[in-house]
Amino acid sequence: MDRSLDIYIGWDSREPIAYEVAKSTILKNASIPVNVHPIILQDLVDKGAYTREVDPLASTEFTYSRFFTPYLAGYKGWALFCDCDFLFFSDVAELLQYRDESKAVACVKHDYQPKAGVKMDGKVQTTYPRKNWSSFMLFNCEHPSTRQLTPELINRESGAYLHRMQWAQDDEIGEIPTEWNWLEGWNDKPASGYPHAVHFTNGGPWFKDWQNVDYGDIWTKKALEIDPEFKPI
After folding, report:
1. Strands (E), 101-233
2. Could you give the residue ranges of the DSSP H alpha helices within 92-177?
3. What φ, ψ does residue 197 adopt, rounded to 5°?
4. What is the C-alpha separation between 90 and 181, in angstroms, rounded?
5. φ, ψ of residue 102 in degrees (nearest 5)
6. How confident is the model at residue 117 (pLDDT cuts 50, 70, 90)?
7. pTM, whole model, 2 decimals?
8. Cβ–Cβ contacts within 10 Å for residue 1, how many?
9. In this predicted model, what pLDDT tens digit does every residue of 179-233 receive, in sequence order?
10. CA pair distance 108, 136, nearest whole angstrom
């Protein structure tokens, strides 16, 4: 089986530095060839692939475009999607062990139930079953269920259908350890070392009001290495 990995990261025009940090920390730790691509909503719109109406509950520009990952990968091989608000400490080569040809997708199966309210830059915090499962997905792009994720279906179906992975049977959803989608402010810190990947799901250090979060200082140091002019918004 191929020892390389295509990785697609959600890109948001309000927080491009978040994408750059996620990409940089993936590449820094990777021991295998990886190809990292941003999923830029406007590019999909310009191609006519994305035609959904604006959703007032969508907290990022990649709320729905994430499901274009198998399409962008040509429905070939395996591809990883993650939100841009990630900080990686481990080698994504370790994810290859979770490739199972009988599964359509693999993810961290969080039981995440945040209190209703506001997150990030004033966006509404919505609660729904399987919340955050879709923030880190290892797609088997050739699986029949995954191949259903055509532009037509993504543009037509509800957010619930897509994010709850109702396009796959329950037994077609594999499991990845929590450490790969470690939710800052929700999951317990490891007794030693770092999570494999930190997810600043409520807001990250690129926002002025989210400076004092776990691992935020490490994220900020990396951001300043990439852009010495970086300042929180």
Report:
1. 105-107, 117-119, 123-125, 136-140, 173-175, 182-183, 197-199
2. 151-156, 159-163
3. -150, 125
4. 12
5. -80, -10
6. low
7. 0.93
8. 7
9. 999 999 999 999 999 999 999 998 899 999 899 999 999 999 999 999 999 999 9
10. 7
Distance between CA atoms of residues 23 and 47, nearest Å: 24
Task: Compute the CA torsion angle 232, 131, 97, 197 (nearest 10 deg).
Answer: 20
Strand partners, 107: 137, 175
Q: What is the pLDDT of residues 15-72, one digit of tens each?
A: 999 999 999 999 999 999 999 999 999 999 999 999 999 888 788 999 999 999 999 9
Please give the order of strands across the beta sheet that includes 34-39.
Answer: 34-39, 5-10, 78-82, 136-140, 105-107, 173-175
Q: Which of 136, 171, 19 is nearest to 66 (CA)?
A: 136
Helix %, strand %, coil % for the chain, to 5?
30, 20, 50
